[in-house]
Amino acid sequence: MKRKLKVLYFRDRCIGNASCAALASNQFEFTGQKATLLNGKKEGNEKFTLNVNCDDNEANDILQAARACPVNAIGVVDMEKNEDIVSYEVKENNAREIAAKYDDSKEFILDDKGYFLIRLDRKSRNIEVAFCNMKNNIILKVTGKKPIDIYHTILHKEKLGIRPEHAAYLGRELQKAYTALENNLEYVQDEELDLNKKFSQ
Ligand code: SF4
């Protein structure tokens, strides 16, 4: 099926992570600091538009690129329905606003899949993560340099099926471990990072 889309691109918002060019290379190119909307018509200082007639696959690539942009620099309009598919504006008309509340001593739920052990190898500058089942057997070991590499490996590739708050805990601990490694700080799992406490052997 043919689709008629209008792509809007606001160049001044682009922070240059290049995901649009990776996902929709027919429409976006990344050569320098910012993306370019190929054959885009300049409509303002930094605003470019492009009308695209394409099949579902190409439309899907464009939509993925727009959704992946972390700074809403790309919008997509369905020209036949005259409606936004991906809006470049963040709207909050129906947003609920609530204050975060959590009491760890009362609300903590143990993950029956297991638990993580995290430590640093300062010599190789790696973060080492082990996952133990509830019988205290290590069933997975993952070593990496960056939190994003490690949690993607554990959560998406290894699919441990842990609770969502346990996954969030892993991300928080990995970031602490990474900060400790980068700044030569003491790292103790589950303890707050002390920015004044340097690591000593
Ligand atoms: S995804 Fe967004 S921020 Fe990243 S290069 Fe494309 S337009 Fe720029």
Provide a descriptive summary of the structure in words.
This protein is α+β, with helices and mostly antiparallel strands. The protein folds into 2 domains: 3-86, Alpha-Beta Plaits; 106-182. Helix content is 26%, strand content 27%. The protein has 5 helices and 10 strands; from the N terminus they run βαββββαββαβββαα. The chain has a 5-stranded antiparallel sheet with strand order 4-5-1-6-7, covered by helices on one side. Strands 8-9-10 form a 3-stranded antiparallel sheet, with helices on one face. It has a two-stranded antiparallel sheet with strand order 2-3. Helix 4 (147-157) runs antiparallel to helix 5 (164-182). The model has no long low-confidence stretch (mean pLDDT 96). Residues 14-20, 30, 35, 68-71, 73-74 line the site of iron/sulfur cluster (SF4).
CATH architecture of the largest domain: 2-Layer Sandwich
Total tally of structural domains:
2
How many helix segments?
5
User: How large is the share of residues in beta strands?
Assistant: 25-35%
Q: In angstroms, what separates the terminal alpha carbons?
A: 65 Å
Gyration radius from CA atoms, angstroms = 23 Å
Please state the structural category.
alpha+beta
Number of strands: 10
CATH third-level topology of the largest domain? Alpha-Beta Plaits
Strand order of the largest sheet: 4-5-1-6-7
CATH class of the largest domain: Alpha Beta
Main β sheet profile: 5 strands, antiparallel
Spell out the helices and strands N to C.
Answer: EHEEEEHEEHEEEHH
Overall outline: elongated
**Helicity, in percent?**
25-40%
List the ligand species.
Answer: iron/sulfur cluster
Runs in which pLDDT lies below 50 for 5 or more consecutive residues are none
Overall pLDDT metric:
96
